TrEMBL record:
GO terms for cellular component: cytoplasm. It comes from Desulfoscipio geothermicus DSM 3669. Belongs to the TRAFAC class YlqF/YawG GTPase family. RsgA subfamily. Monomer. Associates with 30S ribosomal subunit, binds 16S rRNA. Pfam families: RsgA_GTPase, RsgA_N. The gene is rsgA. Binds 1 zinc ion per subunit. PROSITE patterns: ENGC_GTPASE (PS50936), G_CP (PS51721). This is Small ribosomal subunit biogenesis GTPase RsgA. Keywords: Cytoplasm, GTP-binding, Hydrolase, Metal-binding, Nucleotide-binding, Ribosome biogenesis, RNA-binding, rRNA-binding, Zinc. Its main location: cytoplasm.
Length: 289
């Protein structure tokens, strides 16, 4: 039978086949040939009884994320709070690059909008030119949760972001009765406490699967050439054909249309600065390898 790994826990893999879930081991030869199976992997299972089985084959992956480690997701809903904790937009831009590099469509979700004033809600303006879907929600009050439900419907989604932004609270609000553990913000550290201990794909009543993943606060960029990075900032693409030089890095080159668009306010200066910071990181990585 063919199914999807929805949880890996205690040395076993829990595989969803239609509406049934089997607790499975993986044959040693499969593990040696293909390495570690991931949540989200499509697998072929040989049932042993009504509740247990053995994974006989791991099917080819369409996509693969490293942190969090999930396979075959179609989109990444990247959750940040607009307040408590304050959003680290440099980290958000890093996550956006990571998702796109893995072939996963990013969706930006700003949570806790019930706590924010008008100025704090304006952070969305930095991202509108990029064209990524943006949703502003409140897990506490339910504002715009129907919009998020529609985004998740019928798709395999990874829900990612730093600790304390309300990922588990959002899933509890979207799926009443789920009962995921949630945590507050450490007063001393001003950041979230980790509440999710393992990656699990959760079937949603409206259709689709969503991963609640361990919170994290850093992410390495995937290996890439310096010329590739600009492609992960979609708003640059409108202006790149007008740059004086082919392969323009939009840094120190004269006649750069992207830099001019930043000056004219057509591209967020904050996003552009994050691009330069990431470009420096990519160039340093090139030199190491």
């Amino acid at each position: 039978m063919e199914g999807t790994i929805i949880k890996a826990y205690g040395g076993f893999y829990f595989v969803r086949v239609a509406e049934e879930i089997y607790r499975c081991a993986i044959r040693g030869k499969i593990r040696r040939q293909l390495g570690q199976a991931l949540v989200g992997d499509r697998v072929r299972v040989q049932p042993v009884n009504a509740q247990e089985g053995v994974v006989e084959e791991i099917l080819p992956r369409r996509t693969e994320l490293i942190r969090p480690p999930v396979a075959n997701v179609e989109q990444a809903v990247i959750v940040f709070a607009v307040k408590h904790p304050d959003p680290n937009l440099a980290l958000l831009d890093r996550f956006l690059v990571q998702a796109q590099a893995a072939g996963v469509a990013p969706v930006i979700c700003f949570n806790k909008i019930d706590l924010a004033d008008a100025a704090e809600l304006n952070i969305v303006n930095h991202y509108k030119p990029a064209g990524h879907p943006i949703v502003r929600v409140s897990a506490k009050t339910g504002i715009n949760l129907d919009d998020l439900r529609e985004i998740l419907r019928g798709r395999i989604t990874v829900l990612a972001g730093p600790s304390g932004v309300g990922k588990s609270s959002l899933l509890n609000a979207l799926q009443p009765g789920l009962g995921l553990e949630t945590g507050g913000i450490s007063r001393k550290l001003k950041r979230g406490r980790h509440t999710t201990r393992h990656v699990e794909l959760i079937p949603l009543a409206g259709g689709g699967l969503v991963a609640d993943t361990p919170g994290f606060s850093s992410m390495f960029l995937p290996p890439m050439r310096r010329e590739e990075l600009a492609g992960y900032f979609p708003e640059f693409g409108v202006y790149e054909p007008q740059c004086r030089f082919a392969g323009c890095l939009h840094h120190r080159e004269p006649g750069c249309a992207v830099k001019e668009a930043v000056v004219q306010g057509q591209i967020s200066s904050l996003r552009y600065q994050h691009y330069l910071d990431l470009l420096t990181e990519v160039i340093e990585a090139e030199r190491r390898y």
